Amino acid sequence: MQHLARRPIVTVAAALLLSATLVLAACGSSSNGQTSSSGPVNLVFWGFNQQIAEQAALFNSTHPNIHVTGLQQPSGANQYYPKVLAAIKAGNAPDVALIEYQYVPTFVANSALVDLTKYGANDVKSQFAPAAWNEEVENNAVYGYPQDTGPMGLFYNTDTFKKAGITSPPATWADFAADAVKIHKLGPKYYITAFGAQNTGWFQGMFWQAGAIWFSIDSAKQAWKVNINSTIAKQVASYWDGLISKGLVDTSASDADFQPGWNNGLDHGTIASWISAVWGQGVVKGSAKDTSGKWAVADMPQYTAGAHDSAYWGGSGISVVSGTKHAKEAEEFVRWYLTDPGSLKIGVNEIGWFPSNLQAQQTAATAPDPFFAGTTAGGQVVDQTFVQAGNNINSAWTFPPDLTVVVQKQGDDFNAAVSNHTTLSAALDTLQQQVVSDLQSQNISVEQGS
């Protein structure tokens, strides 16, 4: 299996200007789903990868009454999601679209997605990872089928760990902190990891793993409950405050994830580990290409010894877009797209999905990778670690309907805390009030968590 195709799921939250009160002009009617009197139903599918055209062609070859045109769209900042919403408002949206999990609540708040339960969506629920399925559900409505996921683990440089006298990866966060001390003793440029204050998706994964649920829905009151500064969240923030205050993690902006300094640190072993998602294996292989054979993968460190908790960083699903004239046929295609073995094979082997489909996960996680040979002769079967991690995801985590504001404020607040030598714990209090105020300004019912 080729992993180099894997990359971080593109996050456009910092630039995307979506509003939970965006008027969609009743969503219009898609002009892309026109049907001639003698021909098949025509559907348009938007996604990020060119291979969607190949998958659409495979579907068309066995479904003569439905014809799908797969059109690759730009995935860069401030491009894709505004384009989808603008197309819905104009009445010329695609019938089917890729929507990353974190944006599903925003689209639901804009009445932009079709509830698939009326088409029997729950009939295939058991075929998907439970936590991934949950990311598509709001108030028992199913707004898409999960495509790929980003369960998190620990990538670590076994050579640097060995130099520091560390013989096994940290099993707990207490071990991680102790190992951070040992690694930093190798020299002032050595750190167990980098801490990017504005790496919002990554840090949300830290809270998610710990069980700190920032957002939930009170169905009885039809209100969003905001609990960003919960006791558990404060404990997570305080943990990282401790590492930062002691200088045990690299907080330099030039060394933040994906920056040139970070790439150099990985390649020279001075940044000794990276807590990342399954797609991180391709990033490590590209950034630390001179250290092949010196890396390994393990579970995330745990808050409780013996646990195996993880979280998602990234992931996406495929949804039917409001306004389509052919929702039933669109659902048929989406279901096929993420359950058909041929389509899944293209997704895994050519696009580089870590699939949400459970059967596809098992068939994908079989090939050892010699790059990750630090603990295993011939290389680890890296995906197998993440299959196990994906089985231990807290399904209660929910993204908010104002994601853009949340990540913008989160990045600003956490960056200010690091720069000004204040605490991430205090920044959570600030973020709580900012998010509550924003939701209230959008006339969204809000409860504050205790």
Tell me the name of the CATH homologous superfamily of the largest domain. Answer: Periplasmic binding protein-like II
Average pLDDT reading: 91
Q: How many β-strands, per DSSP?
A: 12
Low-confidence stretches: 1-37
Report the major sheet: 7 strands, mixed
| CATH fold node name of the largest domain | D-Maltodextrin-Binding Protein, domain 2
Number of helices: 16
- Which class do the helix and strand fractions yield? alpha/beta
The CATH architecture assignment of the largest domain turns out to be 3-Layer(aba) Sandwich
Whole-number total of structural domains? 2
Structural features, described:
By secondary structure, the protein is α/β, with parallel strands linked by helices. The protein folds into 2 domains: 25-150 and 314-364, 3-Layer(aba) Sandwich (D-Maltodextrin-Binding Protein, domain 2); 153-312 and 396-448, Periplasmic binding protein-like II (D-Maltodextrin-Binding Protein, domain 2, 3-Layer(aba) Sandwich), CATH 3.40.190.10. Helices cover 37% and strands 14% of the residues. The protein has 16 helices and 12 strands. It has helices at 52-62, 80-90, 104-109, 130-134, 158-163, 173-184, 200-210, 231-245, 260-268, 280-287, 327-337, 341-351, 358-364, 382-390, 403-419, 424-441, and strands spanning 41-47, 66-72, 96-100, 137-138, 141-142, 145-157, 215-218, 223-226, 273-277, 295-298, 312-320, 446-448. Strands 1, 2, 3, 6, 9, 10 and 11 form a 7-stranded mixed sheet that branches. Strand 7 (215-218) and strand 8 (223-226) form a beta hairpin. Helix 8 (231-245) crosses helix 16 (424-441) and helix 15 runs antiparallel to helix 16. The longest helix has 18 residues, at 424-441.
